[in-house]
Design brief:
Its EC number is 4.1.2.63. Helix content is 46%, strand content 7%. The protein is of the alpha/beta class and 1237 residues long. Among the domains are: 329-397, Alpha Horseshoe (Serine Threonine Protein Phosphatase 5, Tetratricopeptide repeat), CATH 1.25.40; 400-437 and 448-505, Serine Threonine Protein Phosphatase 5, Tetratricopeptide repeat (Alpha Horseshoe); 516-590, Serine Threonine Protein Phosphatase 5, Tetratricopeptide repeat (Alpha Horseshoe), CATH 1.25.40; 643-803, 3-Layer(aba) Sandwich (Rossmann fold); 830-979, TPP-binding domain (Rossmann fold, 3-Layer(aba) Sandwich), CATH 3.40.50.1220; 1002-1212, 3-Layer(aba) Sandwich (Rossmann fold), CATH 3.40.50. It is built from 47 helices and 17 strands. The radius of gyration is 41 Å and the shape is elongated.
Length: 1237
């Protein structure tokens, strides 16, 4: 005979086939659970077939690995059923030996002997009968006959891979009839050799033999001898071949034979112990104490006993057990609360409590019972789910939702026969024409053959039901799912895939394809695909489930498992970690929602709250076990993370892709970890430059820039960038190291109270108090610097926090939950929008002022529409240039003074009424001008000359869209009598442009230095010949008084955020940092398209603040073209020749500077005469040019533009002796002789 073939030995009817099925496949179909089906098992929901390796490998691991996965907690068994069943023993009437038990030892029928060995689901593992005495007798026959044997997996220690199967066999259903015997040893290790269930089914037609209680052992030996005589040699050969083939992977040796035999002797001794225990019951020992005969061990070890794998009897779980503490008891409509929580993907434990309260208020609320079952099933609590759904059926026996849910849950828990009968019952309700409810299968216990017959019968019924529906999208989805479950159980995966796919494609309304159920259906499809070896397709299905319900932990877990199957271990680890982080997110949501329900504290402390919502139930040891296995495959360990690692990972997760900084003790570790994570780290030579770079990076990208510096002096230097970000409203996060927390006040290394120092200058400043505090602090600081009015924030990181290790079990949130989204946007007050619209329509001289806030808001599209639609002239501020192209005919930049003086209604978009705009006050502005301010910050409204009543708080892009809509088709078109404003602007622009053009076109006399205007004209003309001005392929950086002021008007922009200058703070020294930031924003990121050339126009004084960053540019291969406009002084130089300058130098050195006219010695604005700045580039491997003439300047420009490394052009210009100090465009009205800044 063959153990793996024949009519009696089908897939469902053969124990060895069932065993191979269990060690490779997931038997949980429709389980939709996170944890395994047995205590601590690895059989997660919808697990793919190949996850744990092939059959031979699995059996070998099971046979040879005695321990749990290292680090995994031992898996307890649940005591719930045990306690309930023991209670039943006290009231159970006396019983005698069951005829069914004796029937198993019938020596007269070979078929009965086969059936006895062909126990359900596999030898001693997942079956209900395990090793019956007849099976042991067969083994003894083979041993005595010299049949070679392999090491049996059951006799070995538990495998970490097979922990789902390590459970006491026979527990949980004592006293439910069928046997009259009870096991004597309940040690989890010993129980691997115990029969799982005390009944073995009759499958033949042989006679029944009643065993005598006194002489049963002798009778059994006689049967054994008789049976041995009937076994033919051919059958023995087949047995040997099958066993050897099946256990090929298990190490076999002659020395192991005796050990194997001894192991089975142990089995037999336990069978004898069972008999003794059964006799004791049969003798009506009413004082029988279970613990007298059973080794119970620690009662806590049995807490998960009800999670057994495969059962043959109907579950008898009793009534639903409610939680004693439930905050929903006082809620008016707890059912609606539960539905809302489920719909929003919230905390499932909380939803279950709501439904519990609902059914306690109304025990006849069938929908509440059904929803309770659904919530518990999805929350990894299948047995409470079954109890709830069974209660629903008591209220409404024909409830289709409850029946389908029960069928799925029964399948998940291994109650296959009950699942088949439940599906049959569901079909009789929905399709009575196929099966009459009166003709349903009986509830009697079934053996393997009978269960297979039932399976085939129900499958045929479902096929008939499917044939009743039209083909295509009109198929009944529920029928398809039921059919898919049945095919899955038979391992007909391709058919099961077709059924689940048909259910998803169906347009008909059913239970399984409702919106709130679709994620479950996609997960079931994924599991089936995975078990059929189609992991890539399974991954797509799981992703569909997650798209529908992002908090669907089981699908994320299964996604990780499929990644394991295809060898993508890093991706698997990411998904498994994501599943763990989902628990924390849902837990926190549950806590917050519970607090809402009970109203603040409500007299409930945190411990009570945790107990109410069962937060521990959301954890899964299976997740950790699988994660450990993935890390093992990757050669990693789940070691505690250091503070530096947590900081770097948090920065990555919130969305940071570049950090600007200078490292030292203790922050170097943070930078190194960031680099390891793929974050670009740009190391500067000075904290000022890196903080400037980080601040303006936020302006260009719209996301916060991040700066990392050391403590003490590093923080002091970074204050420059913090101040720059604050003045310009740039989003900036500064991280700094500091002294150890235990050394504060002791004079520690670089000790400084940075929090007190920076609080006045930042939006948010915090010191990390522990490692676990880091993720929240960094995320909050990142969000705060970005949301609302942008500005700087600061996080102080003590050395012991950076270098310490996280607490055991601490995990960062999943990146998807940590990523900080773009700030919410607010529209303007509709009333104020209407008021502004009316003012603009009635204005004689309207003007738009476009500030860098409009550029930061990305409002260029809406503002361009506003200008085109209304034809209102506009005036950009220096960094607002390009929001509307400078080439636009309505640009009033060339008539700036006239525009401000004549305008009667001014719409200010993202600009402040500060010194740049003369505070909005006379005499630069008309004293009668009405100013409409649009700003994200309410504090700016009404500032200086602004009028609070006319201010609009909101996002500029949205407010401009509102204005465009409100103005409709109105256009500014003044009558000739009232329309002097456009003509005044035109006249002023013409005059000023002619003056600038004359200065630009005036040739430089021989042996004379270039003027600013002539030099800029040559640079601009040359650049325009190399790249079209309209394409916006250049980013301009400019700093220095004359350099910045004159270049602003000579280098027009047609694109926003491509001019960076000293800004609101008029900060000198920003240039080199701004170059690096522009490169990172426009060229270094993965999303960059065509690289932009960065052109810097640097005054020699401003360049000196951060000139050493030329080395930084060279190190990172940033091919910037830098013009150092060299007049040998701040604002202006002292002499036109080097000899004259040397005289002044000698006078200063001799302290001979006293004079009536200020003509002796170097002045406070003097710099070294014609310093060779270009050599900084050449010494760093770049290109340097010293330029005096127009020809040299054009040649250097062409070559420098083409260079692929940093280039410095040292441009000598006129010294400007005797010229006034000031910004010409500012036009200050100070008296002659006063310095102008």
């Amino acid at each position: 005979m063959s153990f793996l073939g024949g009519a009696e030995c089908s897939t469902a009817g053969n124990p060895l086939t069932q065993f191979t099925k269990h060690v490779q496949d997931d038997k949980s179909l429709q389980r939709d659970r996170l944890v395994g089906r047995g205590p601590g098992g690895m059989q997660e929901s919808m697990r793919s077939r190949g996850m744990m390796g092939g059959q031979d490998q699995m059996m070998d691991e099971f046979a040879q690995q005695p321990g749990q996965i290292p680090g995994a907690a031992p898996q307890p068994f649940a005591m719930e059923h045990l306690r309930r069943e023991l209670d039943q023993f006290q009231t159970t009437p006396p019983r005698t030996g069951s005829p069914g038990w004796a029937a198993e030892f019938d020596p007269g029928e070979q078929a009965r002997m086969e059936a006895a060995f062909a126990g359900p689901q596999g030898p001693m593992m997942n079956n209900g009968s395990g090793f019956a005495p007849a099976e042991f007798a067969r083994f003894q026959q083979q041993s005595r006959a010299g049949v070679p044997q392999t090491a049996n997996p059951v006799t070995s220690g538990p495998s970490p891979m097979m922990s789902a199967f390590q459970r006491p066999m026979g527990m949980g259903y004592m006293g439910m009839g069928g046997m009259g015997m009870m096991h004597s040893a309940y040690n989890p290790m010993a129980m691997q050799q115990q029969p799982m269930e005390a009944t073995t089914q009759d499958k033949g037609k042989g006679r029944m033999v009643e065993l005598d209680d006194e002489n049963w052992e002798a009778q059994f030996a006689e049967m054994e001898t008789a049976d041995t005589q009937k076994l033919d040699d051919e059958a023995n050969d087949a047995i040997e071949a099958e066993l050897n083939d099946l256990d090929r992977s298990v190490f076999t040796s002659n020395s192991s034979k005796q050990a194997d035999y001894d192991a089975f002797e142990n089995v037999w001794k336990k069978v004898q112990a069972e008999t003794a225990a059964s006799r004791k019951l049969a003798e009506e020992d009413t004082e029988f104490n279970v613990t007298d005969s059973l080794h119970m061990g620690d009662m806590g070890e049995w807490d998960s006993f009800d999670s057994l794998n495969t059962r043959f009897r109907d579950p008898q779980l009793g009534d639903y057990m409610f939680e004693e503490e439930n905050m929903f008891k006082n809620v008016n409509n707890p059912f609606e609360e539960g539905v809302k929580i489920m719909r929003e993907g919230g905390n499932l434990s909380l939803a279950a409590l709501a439904f519990e309260a609902a059914v306690q208020k109304d025990p006849q609320h069938v929908q509440a019972w059904t929803m309770l079952g659904s919530a518990q099933a999805q929350n990894e609590k299948e047995l409470p789910a079954i109890r709830a759904l069974e209660q629903a059926l008591k209220v409404d026996p024909n409830n289709l939702d409850a029946l389908m849910g029960l069928a799925v849950s029964y399948t998940n828990e291994g109650y296959d026969s009950t699942a088949y009968r439940t599906l049959e019952r569901w079909l009789s309700v929905k399709y009575p024409q196929i099966i009459n409810p009166k003709d349903l299968s009986s509830d009697s216990d079934l053996g393997f053959t009978d269960r297979q017959i039932l399976h085939d019968r129900v499958t045929d019924f479902f096929i008939q039901a499917a044939q009743l529906s039209p083909s295509g999208e009109q198929m009944d989805p529920d029928v398809q799912v039921g059919l898919g479950v049945l095919f899955y159980c038979a391992e007909e995966y391709e058919k099961a895939v077709d059924c689940f796919s048909a259910a998803l494609a169906s347009t008909e309304s059913g239970t399984v394809n409702q919106r709130e159920q679709l994620h479950l259906l996609w997960n079931r499809l994924g599991a089936t695909l995975a078990n059929s070896g189609r992991s890539e397709e399974a991954i797509e299905a799981y992703e569909q489930a997650l798209n529908i319900n992002a908090n669907f932990v089981r699908a994320r877990y299964n996604l990780g498992v499929s990644c394991i199957n295809i060898g993508c271990y890093p991706e698997a680890a990411q998904h498994l970690l994501g599943a763990l982080s989902m628990h924390r997110v849902v837990e926190q949501e549950g806590r917050e929602r519970a607090r809402e329900i009970i109203g603040g504290d409500g007299g409930v402390d945190d411990e009570q709250l945790e107990r109410m919502i069962h937060m521990s139930q959301n954890q899964s040891t299976n997740l950790y076990d699988t994660l450990r296995r993935v890390f093992s495959q990757m050669g990693l360990t789940m070691a505690a993370a250091t503070g530096a690692q947590l900081i770097a990972r948090t920065l990555r997760d919130v969305g940071v892709d570049v950090i600007f900084g200078i490292v030292g003790i203790p922050v170097v570790e943070i930078a190194e970890e960031a680099i390891n994570l793929g974050i670009r780290f740009v190391a500067f030579r000075n904290e000022q430059a890196c903080s400037y770079a980080a601040s303006v990076y936020g302006y260009m990208t719209g996301r916060p820039g991040v700066c990392l510096v050391v403590g003490g002096p590093g923080v002091l230097h970074a204050l420059a960038g913090i101040g720059n970000a604050s003045a310009n409203n740039f989003p900036l996060l500064v991280l700094a190291g500091s002294a150890e927390t235990t050394a504060v006040t002791k004079g520690a290394f670089q000790e400084m109270d940075a929090i007190s120092f920076l609080t006045p200058h930042t939006k948010f400043a915090v010191r990390a108090s522990s490692i676990d505090f880091i993720p929240g602090a960094v995320k909050n600081a990142y969000r705060t610097c970005w949301y609302g009015r942008p500005g700087p924030t600061f996080v102080d990181l003590p050395a012991d926090i950076i270098q310490g290790k996280s607490t055991p079990g601490f995990r960062l949130p999943e990146p998807e939950t940590s990523l900080v989204p773009f700030p919410p946007k607010a529209s303007g007050d509709p009333t104020l929008i209407l008021k502004a619209t009316q003012l603009l329509k009635t204005a004689r001289s309207p003007l738009l002022i476009i500030g860098k806030g409009a550029a930061y808001a990305r409002a260029e599209s809406g503002i361009s529409r506003l200008v085109e639609q209304t034809q209102i002239p506009f005036l950009p501020t220096p960094m607002g240039k390009g929001v509307v192209p400078d080439s636009h005919p309505l640009n009033a930049s060339s008539a700036r003074s006239t525009a401000l003086k004549q305008a009667d209604v001014v719409l200010v978009l993202g600009a402040r009424l500060n010194w740049i705009l003369h505070f909005g006050e006379a005499p630069k502005w008309s004293p009668k001008a009405k100013i409409i301010q649009v700003d994200i910050c309410a504090e700016e409204i009404g500032r200086n000359a602004g009028t609070a009543e006319l201010g609009i708080v909101g996002d500029i892009e949205l407010v401009v869209d509102q204005l465009v809509s409100s103005l409709s088709n109105w256009r500014y078109a003044p009558s000739p009598a009232e329309g002097r404003f456009p003509s005044l602007l035109a006249e002023s622009a013409k005059k000023n442009e002619a003056k600038a053009q004359n200065a630009a076109l005036r040739p430089t006399p021989q042996n004379s230095p270039l003027t600013y205007q002539r030099a800029y004209h040559i640079i601009k003309s040359t650049l325009n010949s190399l790249t079209p001005f309209e394409e916006g392929n250049i980013v301009y950086v400019s700093e220095g008084a004359n350099t910045m002021d004159i270049s602003r008007s000579m280098f027009p922009l047609n694109h926003p955020r491509q001019r960076l200058d000293a800004g609101t703070y008029a900060t000198m020294g920003v240039g080199m940092g701004y170059i690096v930031a522009a490169h990172e924003a426009y060229n270094a990121s993965s999303g960059s398209t065509k690289p932009k050339k960065i052109i810097a126009l640097e005054g020699d004084s401003a360049f000196g603040f951060s000139a050493m960053e030329i080395e930084t540019l060279a190190r990172y291969r940033i091919p910037a073209l830098i013009y150092v406009v060299n007049n040998s002084g701040i604002y202006h130089g002292d002499t036109t020749t080097e000899d004259a300058w040397r005289v002044l130098q000698d006078q200063t050195a001799a302290n001979d500077t006293k004079s009536a006219n200020g003509k002796k010695g170097l002045r406070s604005t003097s710099l070294l005469y014609e310093t060779r700045y270009e050599m900084l580039a050449t010494m760093c491997g770049g290109k340097g040019y010293f330029v005096r003439t127009e020809e040299e300047l054009e040649a250097a420009t062409r070559e420098g533009f083409a260079n692929d490394t940093v280039t410095v052009v040292n441009l000598i210009v006129e010294p400007g002796i005797g010229k006034k100090i000031g910004f010409a465009w500012q036009g200050n009205s100070a008296q002659d002789g006063q310095a102008k800044l």
